[in-house]
């Protein structure tokens, strides 16, 4: 089976469920967005969190996707940067526990990155992200050896604030013979850096994952038209449309796959990341695009039924049973 390495912001998610959305307005965090925050805003959020029940989990888009792949039994690795602190140790321990190859770098100057995650009553999540050490991952930190032995590189769009680092990572990955997968990350990130996303996808990226809002921010079009535009730029394009499933295009082949039925959405954190996990797992096993997307739907449909992105062994066993049913079809 092909090996997959993730490159992303090594973050620890601190999750809290809101009774209503007034706190989001108070914190000036648009619902459903990912906003980068400074130290002062982090302290403000922490003072609110100290009065609420919070839950800790490893996070970051690429980190989530790699964790999902590892839980399915795929061979994985992760490149990121953490601080020399409690959160950094928590992140590293989680990699070790899930047999993800640890390629973490340490910052002695900055604390580990934290994604303060607000979960609304409808399951929508809003992030106030303090990048900390994660943002200090630079082009010069990366070496060709980090990518050797892998077949795919999974990059999160949240990294685009450092163009030089992303381009260097892709160059090294291509030199090592890897295919490059990009998850667009968030509609506001795409809108703010449209030209660079266009360059990456036209020139370097093989597989693009986007949700409806990100696809629209990139192309100005609704999902099906957006899919065709992105599909002409890369090898495989995926546009996820939440409860309506996903559209996939490769060359002239285009399919739509339904989402799995879910009675109650608890928290949408990681839904897109876990869809990518399932899809890429299927790809590394050589399954059809339809089966890849169905596996992605199984994973994303399950992770939205729990808080955060950590699922119990029992749930993973059930997921694997459902994947086997898809494969038997």
From TrEMBL:
One of its GO terms (molecular function) is kinase activity. The keyword rRNA processing does not apply. The keyword tRNA processing does not apply. Keywords: Kinase, Transferase. Residues 47-312 form the Carbohydrate kinase PfkB domain. InterPro entries: Carb_kinase_PfkB-like, Carboh/pur_kinase_PfkB_CS, PfkB_dom, Ribokinase-like. CDD domains: adenosine_kinase. Transmembrane segments: none annotated. Belongs to the carbohydrate kinase PfkB family. This is Sugar or nucleoside kinase, ribokinase family. It comes from Bacteroides faecichinchillae.
